[in-house]
Specification:
CATH architecture: 3-Layer(aba) Sandwich
Radius of gyration: 20 Å
Largest sheet: 5 strands, parallel
Number of strands: 7
CATH superfamily: P-loop containing nucleotide triphosphate hydrolases
Number of domains: 1
Helix content: 40-55%
Shape: globular
């Protein structure tokens, strides 16, 4: 037990029971190691919590993991902090090392969902080498494929009421009166990242960077194309079909 361990006496019996039930439910689940690939707005953020819950996987967001390693001052975290302080990018080996540490945790026993990594073929190869040493491999890469024009409509139509966080969409969930919040009547704003120009450059960078990674996994026969333009519930059904095959 590490210094951050909690005494069982301090945990409510309801929490202990629900954790036991979760472990019991998860014990029969097959192991799955997944990568989610898709442009901003393709629905990865909607589907990953559902996949995590249904298949008892841990969700590894590399940015969050790096910040956590830095905060916890793990040996890798200290190295990462040194790089960041110098304004350098954290090396691929460091990120793969942090993933390596994370997947040994009990919560990752049944496998994991990797999101936002690997972004390059070099990273994909390093990840594969690390998994091979553990006797495992990536089972499926879910490609949230969607036309840029559909993404543009999805993203550039988003408007936010800043003080409450309420969000609207000009086409899919419009406010009662154009441009103002339903509750307060205050003006709505658009996030800087949600404009057509920003989206266009983000998508260009995404395609250029990610296509080689998609090709790399396609050659290994582990890519599954999802129709990410469909409504979320239909995408969830597709994901289940892909993961049960």
């Amino acid at each position: 037990m590490g210094s951050s361990a909690v005494a069982l006496d301090d945990i409510s019996s309801v929490d202990i029971m629900s954790e036991l039930l979760r472990r019991f439910k998860c014990s029969s689940k097959p192991e799955k190691r997944l990568i989610l690939v898709g442009p901003p707005g393709s629905g990865k953020g909607t589907q990953s919590p559902i996949i995590k819950e249904d298949y008892c996987l841990c969700h590894l967001a590399t940015g969050d993991m790096l910040r956590a390693a830095v905060a916890a001052e793990t040996p890798l975290g200290i190295k990462a902090k040194e790089a960041m302080n110098k304004g350098e990018l954290v090396s691929d080996d460091l990120v793969v090392g942090i993933i390596d540490e994370a997947i040994k945790k009990p919560s990752c026993q049944k496998g994991f969902i990797l999101d936002g990594f690997p972004r390059t073929v070099v990273q994909a190869k390093k990840l594969d080498e690390m998994l091979e040493k553990q006797g495992t491999k990536i089972d499926k890469v879910l490609n949230f494929a969607i036309e840029d024009s559909i993404l543009e409509e999805r993203i550039t139509g988003r408007w936010i009421h800043p003080s409450s966080g309420r969000s609207y969409h000009t086409k899919f969930a419009p406010p009662k009166v154009a441009g103002v919040d339903d509750v307060t009547g205050e003006p709505l704003i658009q996030r800087k990242d949600d404009t057509a120009e920003v989206l266009k450059s983000r998508l260009e960078a995404f395609h250029k960077q990610t296509q080689p990674v998609i090709d790399y996994y396609a050659n290994k026969g582990v890519i599954s194309q999802l129709h990410a333009e469909k409504p979320p519930k239909e995408v969830t059904i597709e994901v289940h079909k892909v993961l049960s095959s």
